[in-house]
Design goal:
Bound molecules: nicotinamide-adenine-dinucleotide, 2'deoxy-thymidine-5'-diphospho-alpha-D-glucose
Order of helices and strands: EHEHEHEHHEHEEHEEHEEHEHHHH
CATH topology of one domain: Rossmann fold
Largest sheet: 7 strands, parallel
Structural class: alpha/beta
CATH superfamily of one domain: NAD(P)-binding Rossmann-like Domain
Strand content: 15-25%
Number of helices: 13
CATH architecture of one domain: 3-Layer(aba) Sandwich
Distance between the termini: 54 Å
């Protein structure tokens, strides 16, 4: 099989490529990635030695690039996106162009070249905040941030391609992933690295927002199942079944390093901060037999150990990348008023 994986140099894309290569060594995989601030080709160095893996540096915002990338391919997995909610609050323009127009370009190219299977990667954030109960795939979309609005727009485009052209792509909506190779602006790697540097961790608002955490390897197994066995045109929720407040997550991390709550700094809340996400994953479990295999505590320990063992990986970003430093300074300065 020949597959294009967009955004393969990012966090989930990297983990997915390792899994695909291990499970399907005979596949030809073409990675299409623009290498924005969160993409890192070095993640894939060992994979790129394999003759079956090809890397194209290219932007899904360019229709011709998408058309060339899908040439001769049997499948597309579309990870490429701007993925950080806080960045979308400061400036959403790249979110609109990549997440919406880029997805449109990939869909159009794949449809025109008759690419058999298309899996679009979406998020639980499209449902918006869920006060009680859990979101099902057919629930209304109520995105609260420019990021989630751009992802919801892409999901609607996917739907429209099925209705208008009969090109039935699949969608997964997963909850919060954690694991190796996550860019250290996201809660878990940012806090682990801060604690290792002896710095405080900035908790937004009252710290009681709830996220459903899934180990990235479990999500990648789900993506594999949907890509190979999913019904065209169908949406699948992919949750970890592990809802925790940000305070609980923070305390797990502090406890690992033998630190107490004095390391927490409460800062201004994220505007439009969704209180809780929760997914009903009955469909993927009943139809495809997928369920998360990793216990949260073990996966979190493995993740912490990865950041300890790979300190140069995140230090190269936190200490040396101008782009990282300037964004984080601007962002956290804007939140610095204590509640
Ligand atoms: P990431 O930011 O780590 O990686 C994004 C990748 O996309 C990077 O390699 C980047 O270079 C690439 N990219 C960005 N713009 C591009 C463009 N215009 N053309 C080509 N490549 C481009 O993100 P991630 O956390 O790995 O998320 C991957 C996907 O999964 C995204 O679609 C995101 O919305 C979705 N998702 C993420 C999570 C999570 O918890 N991380 C949960 C649910 C859904
Ligand atoms: O739910 C899936 C989504 O999970 C994905 O679609 C996004 O791409 C991914 O970035 C993630 O979004 P979140 O906004 O939930 O992740 P983040 O790590 O930014 O924040 C997790 C929670 O922690 C959230 O409630 C905000 C809070 N937080 C985050 C940071 C970075 C803090 O309290 N302090 C922080 O410094």
């Amino acid at each position: 099989m020949r597959i294009v994986v967009t955004g393969g140099a990012g966090f989930i894309g990297t983990n997915f490529l390792f899994l695909m290569h291990e499970k399907y060594p005979g596949y030809h995989i073409r990675v299409l990635d623009a290498l924005t601030y969160s993409g890192n080709k070095d993640n894939l160095l060992s994979l790129l030695e394999s003759p079956g893996i090809e890397f194209i540096r290219g932007d899904i915002r360019e229709p011709d690039t998408c058309m060339e990338a899908v040439e001769g391919m049997d499948g597309v997995v579309n990870f490429a996106a701007e993925s950080h909610v806080d960045r979308s609050i400061h400036d959403a323009s790249d979110f609109l162009s990549t997440n919406i127009a880029g997805t449109y370009n990939m869909l159009k190219a794949a449809k025109e070249r008759n690419v058999e299977r298309f899996l679009h990667i979406s998020t639980d954030e499209v449902y918006g905040s869920v006060e009680s109960g859990s979101s099902k795939e057919d629930d209304p979309l109520l995105p609260a941030s420019p990021y989630s609005a751009s992802k919801a727009s892409a999901d609607l485009l996917v739907h429209s391609f099925g209705m208008t052209f009969g090109y039935r792509a699949m969608i997964t909506r997963s909850s919060n992933n954690f694991g190796p190779y996550q860019y250290p602006e996201k809660l878990i790697p940012f806090f682990i690295s801060n604690i290792m540097e002896g710095k405080k961790v900035p908790l937004y608002g009252d710290g009681l927002n709830v996220r459903d955490w899934i180990f990235v390897k479990d999500n990648c197994e789900a993506l594999d199942a949907v890509f190979h066995k999913g019904t065209p045109g169908r949406i699948y929720n992919v949750g970890g079944g592990c809802e925790k407040t940000n305070m609980e997550i923070t305390r797990c991390l502090l406890e690992y390093f033998g630190k107490d709550d004095s390391f927490i700094e409460f800062v201004k809340d994220r505007p439009g901060h969704d209180r809780r996400y929760s997914l009903d994953c009955t469909r993927i479990t009943e139809e495809l037999g997928w369920r998360p295999e990793h216990k949260f505590e073990d996966a979190l320990t493995a993740t912490i150990e990865w950041y300890i063992d790979n300190r140069p990986w995140w230090e190269a970003i936190k200490k040396k990348r101008e782009e990282y430093i300037s964004f984080m300074e601007k962002h956290y300065d804007s939140l610095s008023l204590k509640k």
